[in-house]
Predict the 3D structure of the following.
Amino acid sequence: MHYLITGGSGFIGSHLSDKLLADGHRVTVLDNLSTGKIENVRHLEGNDRFKLVVGTILNETLVDKLAERCDAIFHLAAAVGVELIVNHPLESLTTNIKGSEIVLEMAYRYHKKVLITSTSEIYGKNTQGPLTEDQDRILGSPLKSRWSYSTAKAVDEILAYVYWKEKKVPTTIVRLFNTVGPRQSGMYGMVVPRFVRQAVEDKDITVYGSGTQSRCFLHVKDVVSTLPKLIENLGSYGQVFNIGSQEEVTIEDLARKVIEITKSKSKIVKIPYEKAYEEGFEDMERRMPDTTKIRNLIGFKPTADLKDIIEDVVKYTRENK
Ligand code: UDP
């Protein structure tokens, strides 16, 4: 198969490129290298089944050409990371809505399968856990960046769904919960690479808010082994699936685990949300996926636990100081 991966030089996209190439497929990556990095795919240069195209998903002519040539599309290009979204709300909105519309339209034009990556941010402030795919969304004002991001991703989901419903484009939607692993940058807010870097450098570990908020972290390798199974499964079209871990940890305990594994001299410091992000910032107290639906369809089961994840990120961080 020949796959087009938008955002294929990013954290998740580059691991997906590795996985598909390892399985013998051809991969074309379209990435504007905004948050994606050339270093993430440099090791693939010279592989004659791999091609990197530097460009934006907003360039319709380019997406048209690439969509025509591939067999199926993984659409990962997006503005991601709470901090990036808070700091660049307009750009985030345009990339996420217009970009997805272009990708879906081209998938329609050339009758290609397309997998759209959405996010657990969809659920907003719904902290009931574990969250099933049909749970209510609970959002604050659309003028707050976090909720406008959630809304933009919801528009992507709606677009993907109606392209399936009305135009019979085989679309699959995945909601990724906190995904972590090597190559993830801490520059846009992601907590694990941040804590690990702080610990490796013996700097203060910055826990935002009380530290009692919790998350479930899934290793990126468990995400990228799942996406190809979904896109090739007829039962996934017109459907949405949570992908995530159910191993819950509070952010303060995460900081402690990182210190323990790195044997760091770092201390934990608490920083109020309004200092870390912006005035009026709202965090989720808890976020855990119900993964029954994807388990039933393709037998999804994480292979790495939190300790494995932290150890992998520590190794990567030490090697890429
Ligand atoms: N967080 C933190 N310190 C940091 C970065 C993030 O305490 O340096 C917290 C953040 O406020 C949130 C959790 O860690 O409660 C997860 O943040 P992340 O941005 O990784 O993911 P998301 O909030 O999207 O789940």
Q: What stands out?
A: The CA atoms of residues 221 and 267 lie 30 Å apart.
